[in-house]
Amino acid sequence: MKVLPLLPIIALAACGPTTGTRVASTPAEAPARVGSVPATRPAPPATGGFRVAKVMSLPGLEGVIGVDSAQLQRQFGAPRLDVWEGDARKLQFSGEACVLDVYLYPSRPGAIPTSTYVDARRASDGLDVDRAACVKALRK
């Protein structure tokens, strides 16, 4: 049968425009809806684009919040993950009891990032757990 070798060509031809119109590589902007988020980003803060991170303050997190990565590694050992995004850093420590994500941000441009926020969850199913209990369980 001679039609079989032509099937891939016919299939590819069906993918392109048939009217001679241009196909945009990005979709056109949809009209703005009432109550929608504006398409433009807000202006950076007056501090030159640097924002000071809010520091978490919860009982049981003393010695974890406000310290640098070296101090965290002395407490919990080598991190499972060490991810940099710009000047921010995320260290992840894990054990049988839980997974602890520690977020570090510099207090000013060029400063060494220190921990400002932690999040904890069970390793088995990802459900949130008490942060202080996770810190206690993971400390060496």
From TrEMBL:
It comes from the Bacteria. This is Lipoprotein. It comes from Tsuneonella deserti.
